[in-house]
Design a protein that fits this description.
Length: about 80
């Protein structure tokens, strides 16, 4: 039987499947096996991918949005102007 086995940090899986708290930020082993599409009562759950869009909306400050285009350039100048 062909299979794939890999050890990765669990953070790379966060957008794909739900990771239990005790496995977050740890190395985990991924094993991929072929699946025969036979209804044998397996309880396989399918999770929707998590999306980050809109999560930070409550922190939005419309007064500061006009300064966003130049913020990085100003920060670099302040950090390195004395060097």
């Amino acid at each position: 039987m062909d299979f794939v086995r890999k050890v990765v940090n669990s953070n790379v899986l966060a957008d794909i499947i739900e990771i239990p708290e005790h496995l977050k930020n740890k190395k985990v082993e991924i094993i991929i096996l072929p699946y025969d599409n036979v209804d044998n009562g397996d309880n396989v759950s399918i999770h929707k991918a998590k999306k980050a869009r809109g999560l930070l909306q409550k922190y939005r400050n419309k007064e500061l949005q006009s300064l966003e285009n130049t913020a990085w350039a100003k920060a670099v100048i302040e950090k390195h102007e004395s060097s």
